[in-house]
Structures are given as structure tokens and as C-alpha cells.
Amino acid sequence: MRPDRKIRELAEKENVEIRTYEIIYKLLEDVEKAMKGMLAPEFIEVVTGEAEVREVFKAPKVGAVAGCSVTSGVITRGSKVRFLREGTIIWKGNINTLRRFKDDVREVREGFECGLSLTDFQDLKPGDVIETYELKEVERA
């Protein structure tokens, strides 16, 4: 059904969009899409890698550098990080620098060793765990 001229003019004046449909399920699909767009996105944290701090070094420009062994997954420079001590999260932030020997690297895989520094965190101790993660958007039902 098409709206008459007065209704179309009023809708235009009030900035209201009028849509017409011949097939009801197209209307339902559009309403569902519009409703999903109104909801705030929901995210889950997906662990991408884990490393154990073996040794802590002091570097003049970056401060504390953690000498780590990657125990699972992949550690990537710039990743979001959870810093755990005895199973308790004590800091969240980002990886500032990531090196393998003297080379700057983008990522280090399981079984390899690396040196990394964290943005604004210096209280590193051997035995601490560094867990990297990314946020994945979950589609709402």
C-alpha cells in the first residue's frame, strides 16, 4: 500500500523514511537488520598467544625488557596483553617492542624465545605470564 501525498509530505518534513514492500519477509529482514544496528556491538576476548618470562633485562631507552619463551600460539607486536602473576591479572595494555635476538620482529611463534617490552609497565619478574589476545565481535542473535 502506498501512502497518500499528505502523508508523504509530512514524512519528508519530519525526516521519516517510508518504505514499501511487496514481500513480507523482506520487511522482516530489514527490521531485523535495523534492530541489530541499534544494539551496541558485543566482543569476546580470544587468546592468541602465551609467553613465560624467563629473565628480566634493563635497557636504557625502553626500561625493563622481558626475556620470554613462547609457550603457545603467536605473540605479535602491538597486541593487546594481559600480564599475569600467579594466575592473577595485574596489568592490561599493549606490547611496545618485540625482538628476536637483535632483530625487531612482527611476531614470534610457539617454541621460540623473544624479548619484549610493555607499554607503561616495568614490574616484570621471572615466572610471570604474558597472554596476548584480540577482541572479536560476536554477532547478536
Draw up the topology in text:
Layout lengths: L4 H9 L10 H15 L3 E18 L3 E14 L3 E6 L2 E13 L2 E2 L2 E3 L3 E6 L10 E10 L3
Antiparallel strand pairs: 1-2, 1-8, 2-6, 2-7, 3-4, 3-8, 4-5, 4-7
Task: Describe, in short, the structure shown.
With 141 residues, the chain is α+β, with helices and mostly antiparallel strands. The chain has 2 helices and 8 strands; from the N terminus they run H-H-E-E-E-E-E-E-E-E. The chain folds into 2 domains: 5-38, no CATH class; 43-138, Translation factors (Elongation Factor Tu (Ef-tu), domain 3).
Folded structure, characterized:
This protein is α+β, with helices and mostly antiparallel strands. The chain folds into two domains: 5-38, no CATH class; 43-138, Beta Barrel (Elongation Factor Tu (Ef-tu), domain 3). 17% of the residues lie in helices and 51% in strands. It has a six-stranded antiparallel beta barrel. A hairpin with a 3-residue loop joins β1 (42-59) and β2. InterPro entries: EFTu-like_2, TF_IF2_bacterial-like, TIF_IF2, TIF_IF2_dom3, TIF_IF2_dom3_sf, Transl_B-barrel_sf. It is found in: Cytoplasm. It holds the Pfam family GTP_EFTU_D2. Its main location: cytoplasm.
